Amino acid sequence: MPRTAISGLIVLVLATAALPALAHEEGGIAGGFISGFLHPIFGWDHVAAMVAVGLWGAFLGQPAIWQLPVVFPAVMAVGGAMGVAGIALPEVETGIAASALVLGLMVALAVRPPLVVAAVLVGIFAIFHGHAHGTELPEAANPVAYAGGFVLGTGLLHLCGIGFGLLSRWRAGTYAIRAGGGVIALAGLGFLTGSL
Amino acid sequence: MNRTALAAGSGLAALPATALAHTAIEGIDIFYSGLLQPLYVPSHLLSLLALAMLCGLAGRRTAMTAIPVLSLCVALGLAAGSLGATAPWPVIVLLVVAMSCGALAALAVPPMPVVAALAAAVAGMTIGLDSVPEAGSPAAGNISVMAATWFTAWAVPAWLTAVQIRFARPWVRLGARIVGSWILAAALMVLVLALKP
Predict the structure, then answer these.
(1) Any chain B CB within 8 A of the CB of A139?
(2) Are the beta carbons of A20 and A37 closer than 8 angstroms?
(3) Among A80, A112, A147, B95, who pairs with A130 as Cys (CB 3.0-4.6 Å)?
(4) If you measure CA to CA, which chain B residue comes closest to A24?
């Protein structure tokens, strides 16, 4: 990605990240936004999977680098809506842990499926993540702020993965990314077996 | 000044406006409360952001239609609200606008100018009606407070739209699509919660 593009992307993120300033209030908006923003960031299973999405997208190159982070929140909303509506989804925590394992393996093994296959796989796991977030939404101090917070937190984790994934333009970087995928897969295995 | 520097400068210049939210919440001048009102209310902010992302993706013609309509309708809403009118289900209406605009932006489906203008009209009227200071509050009946709200409600989306159109690069469009998908996700879930029996 050209340097100007990276600079511009930073500007766009800063400009559209006005939402966090709302957290200065100690009332409902702050409670909602902060808890929503921190929910994906302080949940290591969420972190591993979100970073893996960004990593895999970057590893697959254009247009997956941007398509996967667009697909994920859009599908995640469906899972979130199911959680809000009280529609049960079996094995949510298992699905989240499996997402870290599978997506980590995709990166570690340098699997390059067609974009639609990658999007479907990411979308399936997004349902589980969304359901976990959505289940907590009704208890949020301010649901709109909570939803904005966790979507933003999720997106920033994707961007972290993409940023790391941009190392793929160098051979050594590719090895580093695949090693990162391996670490995520191991973490996913740990989440699945309960050892983490 | 090259484009990168211009983009960085305009982005940084916009940040202090956000930081004012802190002082407004601590009870400083009511003018600033009015200025920050559209950024402070999450449903207002989501709908304005979504509209800006959509207008930026749709291009100059759509933006030149929708943004003036937004400005006009916020003013009309504030005026009507001052006369006692109220917005029906403001949160739900604004979330529907945010979700629709966010979905179109995420899918990169530029709407016809009239569709964007309709979304801007609905959002503008609702935000205007919903932003009138409550009777009995220090800001009640204060024209400058409402003028400040009106300014922010159209200037922020106009600025975001202009940045996208000015820096019409593929990565800008992709960034707007990502933000659109975030807004779609947030709005859809809260909408389901709001409509949950």
Answers:
(1) no
(2) yes
(3) A80
(4) B22
